[in-house]
Amino acid sequence: IFAFLVYGMNTISTREKYFKTLWGQFKVYAFSLVGSTALNSYLINSGVDKTVAFFGTMTVFAVFNYFWVGWTVDRAMESASDGDDDELSLKEQTGTLKRTTTQR
User: Fold this and answer.
1) Residue 76, number of CB atoms within 10 A of its CB
2) Among candidate residues 67, 70, 66, the one with its CA nearest the CA of residue 90
3) Residue 14 DSSP one-character state
4) Per-residue pLDDT of the chain in tens (104 residues, 90 and over written 9)
5) Count of beta carbons in the 10 Å neighbourhood of residue 3
6) Most buried of 58, 75, 90, 99 (most Cβ within 10 A)?
7) CA dist., res. 43 & res. 23, Å (int)
8) Nearest to residue 65, comparing CAs of 18, 17, 30?
């Protein structure tokens, strides 16, 4: 449901795309679980208030996850080969990348 609502049905239209995006997201979230624990522990041991450390860690890893998951899904879309040459990358679908045309 998440992939359909956030990234569109095109990101999971084939089995290969589905598993590439799923595996990529598992890697991102696994790294974030370990990384956020390490960062929070470091901040608290450095004398930062536990509330500030908690919200600081949440903010850092929320931003990190947002960009890394987007990059992971886009990379999986580009590397998946389903024979459709007209398929747009995720960045093009969401409008974050402007198309360039060459005039002849």
Assistant:
1) 22
2) 70
3) S
4) 666 666 666 666 677 777 888 888 889 999 999 999 999 999 999 999 999 999 999 999 999 998 998 888 788 777 765 444 444 555 555 555 444 444 44
5) 17
6) 90
7) 30
8) 30
Helix axes 15-45, 50-79, angle to 10 degrees: 160
Q: Which two tokens stand for residue 36?
A: 């956020």
Which tokens in the block code for residue 59?
Answer: 């903010």
Letter for the amino acid at 103?
A: Q
| Residue labelled with tokens 């598992």 | 26
Q: What's the pTM value of the predicted model, to 2 decimals?
A: 0.62
Helix, strand, or coil (residue 89): coil
Residue 47 DSSP class: T
